[in-house]
Amino acid sequence: MSTALETEEHQALRAAVAALGKRYGRDYMTTVIREGSHTGELWAEAAKLGYLGVNLPEEYGGGGGGMAELSIVLEELGAAGSPLLMMIVSPAICGTVIARFGTDEQKQKWLPGLADGSLTMAFGITEPDAGSNSHRITTTARRDGTGPDADWLLTGRKVFVSGVDIADATLIVGRTEDARSGNLKPCLFIVPREAPGFGRNQIDMELHAPEKQFELVLDDVRLPADALVGDEDAGLLQLFAGLNPERIMTAAFGIGMGRFALGKAVEYARTRQVWKAPIGSHQAIAHPLATAHIDLELSRLMMQKAARLYDAGDDVGAGEAANMAKYAAGEACVKAVDQAVHTLGGNGLTREYGLASLITASRVARIAPVSREMILNYVSHQTLGLPKSY
Ligand SMILES: Cc1cc2nc3c(=O)[nH]c(=O)nc-3n(C[C@H](O)[C@H](O)[C@H](O)COP(=O)(O)OP(=O)(O)OC[C@H]3O[C@@H](n4cnc5c(N)ncnc54)[C@H](O)[C@@H]3O)c2cc1C
User: Fold this and answer.
1) pTM beyond 0.90
2) Which of 275, 287, 269, 293 is nearest to 344 (CA)?
3) How far apart are the first and last CA of the chain?
4) CA neighbor of 83 nearest in space, from 332, 349, 333
5) CB 306 within 8 A of CB 318
6) Residue 45 neighbours by CB distance under 10 Å
7) Burial 139-150 (b: 16+ CB within 10 A, else e)
8) Rg of the chain (C-alpha set)
9) CATH entry 3.40.50.1370 includes domain 236-383
10) Which H/E stretch holds residue 172?
11) Span from the CA of 221 to the centroid of ligand 1 (angstroms)
């Protein structure tokens, strides 16, 4: 894979993470999944090597880099077969939001731990009755009393929230009582895992991954005044600051998984021989693999553009590029996995080769955190200026 567009530091980071990924790899991941356990060792080691906090400020123990670096880490772990989905939420969304908008105390409390891996955060925005339409979220925060020191009481439901069981806290997107009508005026709260009234039920997902998804029930969860991150009135800006990294990182997740599947298929097609020559010499097998490679490379270019814009402080430009990168990577991932499975014939469906389960896993990159259709809507309306149907 050509990386000449990247700086020497980025190439070195890519090589070092790839080496770590190789030491863990797909067998490690498969064992973790089969045992129903977690990727704690890989998480801890990646953190110790400075990879998980590579985007966080140096003064809080991070690497002082940005999304360009963090996306390299997730892509390379994914390409080795052991992606860490929680990187999308813990350092990327939550770390970014707290670093940019948190109070000094919140930064002191969370950032060093997010960087050294001793603390993990989940992120909850999706609701059962809102789904793709975040404007409809109804999780509501109200003050119990008056004045800036009054506690908050948070009530509502969330769904599909990843990793709540292993996260020390979840960053919950709610809205204040006086902002329930009209456009979304979100506010972000740090909710500790064991907070009274914060219930979780694991969703029975048909997904071969170590991270689990949860439905959350928040029943008058009492939070101190300082559980609110940033400004009650500037929540939308803060939310977008976290959602762009989420999209860039989901692109990295998709590109990594696509590369892993493609690598397995190419290896197989080179040697599997049922006629005169290996199956990889038939263009019906070779061309779709070549197309998948091109699509993954193109997705990475858009991901790099999004990361560069984001790291340069251009939130608006990054928004469009991050959406496009997430779309392109999601599609490239789904196609690469599909073609990889097909290349292996019957072996594509065996547990031994481990590709069939990626068919479901790859769909995550198409659906979450924002679906393919919602990105096409965004580009239709925001970029092309077409009218809206909904
Ligand atoms: C594995 C996994 C992990 C996740 N982790 C998290 C997490 O950690 N935190 C979190 O908050 N959420 C998480 N999610 C939720 C995810 O972000 C949502 O599933 C996603 O935003 C889509 O919402 P929905 O499932 O309610 O689908 P819906 O909004 O019900 O959409 C269903 C279908 O309708 C289409 N659709 C909807 N509206 C339109 C429209 N206007 N035009 C055209 N098509 C439309 C969609 O594209 C989709 O295909 C996760 C989901 C998965 C699968």
Assistant:
1) yes
2) 269
3) 42
4) 333
5) yes
6) 16
7) bbbebeeeeeee
8) 21
9) no
10) strand 169-176
11) 25
Tally the residues of the chain.
Answer: 390
**Fold (topology level) of 122-233:** Butyryl-CoA Dehydrogenase, subunit A; domain 2 (2.40.110)
> Do 122-233 and 236-383 have matching folds?
no
Ligand 1 atom at minimum distance from 370 CA: 21
8 Å CB contact between 157 and 150: no
Our mutation pick for probing the ligand 1 site, out of 200, 366, 371, counting the most ligand atoms within 8 A of Cβ, is 371
Give per-residue pLDDT as tens, 305-338.
Answer: 999 999 999 999 999 999 999 999 999 999 999 9
The per-residue pLDDT for range 99-158, each reduced to its tens digit, is 999 999 999 999 999 999 999 999 999 999 999 999 899 999 999 999 889 999 999 999
Residue found by looking up tokens 């990182």 in the block: 249
pLDDT in tens, 345-390: 999 999 999 999 999 999 999 999 999 999 999 999 999 999 998 8
The domains of the chain are located at: 8-120, 122-233, 236-383
Q: Which atom of ligand 1 is nearest to the CA of 125?
A: 11
Task: Provide CB contacts within 8 A for 319, sequence distance 6+.
Answer: 240, 244
d(CA 303, CA 258): 14
Measured torsion, CA atoms of residues 21, 24, 29, 34, in degrees rounded to the nearest 10: 180
- Of 33, 160, 360, which is best to mutate to test ligand 1, by the most ligand atoms within 8 angstroms of its C-beta? 160
Contacts from 171-174 at CB under 8 Å and sequence distance 24+? 171/93, 171/94, 171/97, 171/121, 171/122, 171/123, 171/124, 171/229, 171/242, 172/124, 172/139, 172/216, 172/218, 173/123, 173/124, 173/125, 173/134, 173/137, 173/139, 173/239, 174/137, 174/139, 174/140, 174/141
- From the list 102, 91, 105, 108, the residue with the least C-alpha distance to 47 is 91
- Answer yes or no: are the C-beta atoms of 163 and 38 closer than 8 Å: no
Token pair of 354, please? 């481990």
Q: For domain 8-120, which architecture applies? A: Orthogonal Bundle (1.10)
